[in-house]
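Quick check before the chapter quiz. The format below is the same one you will see on the exam, so make sure you can read both the input and the output lines.
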Amino acid sequence: MNSLSSRVAEATFTGTFVSFEGVDGCGKSTQLSYVIAALAEVGLTPVQLREPGGTAISEKIRDLLLDPANKGMAAECELLLYEASRAQLVREVIAPALAEGQLIICDRFYDSTYAYQCAARGLSEASVISANALGSCGYAPTLTIVLDLDPERAFARATREGADRLEAEGVQFQQRVRAGYRRLASLEPDRVRIVSAEGTPDEVFTRIATVLCEAVPELRGFDVPAFLARQHDLEKAMELVTAAAEQAEALQDTGVLPTI
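Here is the expected output.
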């Protein structure tokens, strides 16, 4: 086992634990929605989690971490809050689910802490790895997919409608985060896989599916183009339903009933 994982991972389990990482604005939310839909098509219902968060206690910690009003938060405080949120999530949700053999899809895990608090904030690697070992309770993802996108493009996308405390750190901060992820991938190439997030969402998902099937054998041979076509048909149908509902609401507000 590589030097970083050997200093964090101790737990063994029968389930599958997949985490998704990347700089803010890399398109994780869109791709995770595709992943969940694809898994459903092959009969899998994963446990869906996010970090920080995922439990009542962890969500309260998330609010503290992302609140722009807390811009004076010390880097060490930030690190320990992330680990506290993570430990609660592991003990309450992740460990029991993996013990039952379930599949977990998690939006960020301890690799984010390495990239943000070590590479970007400048906390020592030894301190962050030790903190990750404690906060993860010895659990490491089976596979980590890092969506790699130019930080300037990602920053513009992430802050289009305002920024949380970390997004407000700026492009240079995100560039250091990206470098941290790339270092992790070089140290742990079997677990941490870099996937380009350049191009259309369909192109990105196609790349993800190629990697994800290594950890989720049910996706081997999955017809990605046909799946994406079905997704687009569904999206168009939902847009029509939404438009019709908005039109009906507008007519109701004016007191004019639609013609049948």
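If your answer matched, good. The CA atoms of residues 57 and 85 lie 7 Å apart.
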